[in-house]
Amino acid sequence: MRIYSNKLTVAKVLHAFAAAREITSADIRAVDARSFTPRGTNNLWANGIEVYAESRHGNAATGHAPIGPGPRDHLPRAASWTGYGWVIAYLFAEDPDARIGFYDGVADFISQVRASHRGERGESTDFLTLIARHDRHEQDWTPLIYRSGGNIIIPTT
After folding, report:
1. Which of 17, 22, 39, 153 is deepest in the core (most CB within 10 A)?
2. What is the pLDDT of residue 121?
3. Which position has the higher pLDDT, 4 or 60?
4. DSSP conformational letter for 79
5. SS3 131
6. H helices within the chain, ranges in order?
7. CA dihedral 105, 110, 112, 115 (to 10 degrees)
C-alpha cells in the first residue's frame, strides 16, 4: 500500500498497524515499510511511504509465493479488507488529507467504503466509527479518536 502525506511517517504508519491489532484485534501486521520521496512537478506531498502487510489467519494467499507446485500452508496470508480498513482509519485520523492506497482523503475513504456494499456481504465497516461522523448534507466529518502523547484515545461515549 502506498501512502502520500505531509504528516505521516513510517513510525506513525507502523503505530497504526499496531493500534489496529491491539485495540480492535484486526488480523493485520506490517511486514515491511519504507519511505520514499514523492516525485513529480506538481507534487503536493512531503512524504511517501510504502508498506507491505499480511495476516496470520487470512482466507486468501498473498501474491508473494514461489512459483511451482508444493504446499502453501506456510505462506503468509493476505490481510482482509476490514483489517486494512482499521489501519487506514487510524491513518486518516492522523492526516485527513493524505492519499492512502486509492483513497484521496478521508471524505473519499468514507464515500467509497459506504458505496462498496461490503457491509451487505457481511464484512464489517465498524472502522468508520473511529474516524468520522459523516453528515450527508454538510459533507463534513468529525474525528472520533484523539492523541494524547503517543497514545490513541478512543472516547467511550
Report:
1. 17
2. 67
3. 4
4. P
5. helix
6. 10-24, 81-94, 106-115, 128-131
7. -160
Rounded CA separation 67/95 (Å)? 39
pLDDT at 65: 56
2 Cβ contact partners less than 8 Å away, ≥ 6 residues apart: 48, 49, 50, 101
Neighbouring-strand partners of residue 4:
48, 99
Model confidence over 48-92: pLDDT tens digits? 999 988 887 666 655 555 556 666 666 677 778 888 888 999 899
SS3 category, 24: helix
What average pLDDT is seen over the chain?
A: 76
> Which stretches does DSSP call E strand in the chain?
2-5, 29-36, 47-54, 99-100, 103-104, 146-148, 151-153
Cα–Cα distance, 84 to 127 (Å, whole number): 9
Q: What is the Cα–Cα distance from 72 to 61, expressed in whole angstroms?
A: 8
What is the per-residue pLDDT for 63? 57
Provide the residue ranges of all domains of the chain, joining segments of one domain with +. 2-57+74-153
CA pseudo-torsion sign 86, 90, 96, 100: negative
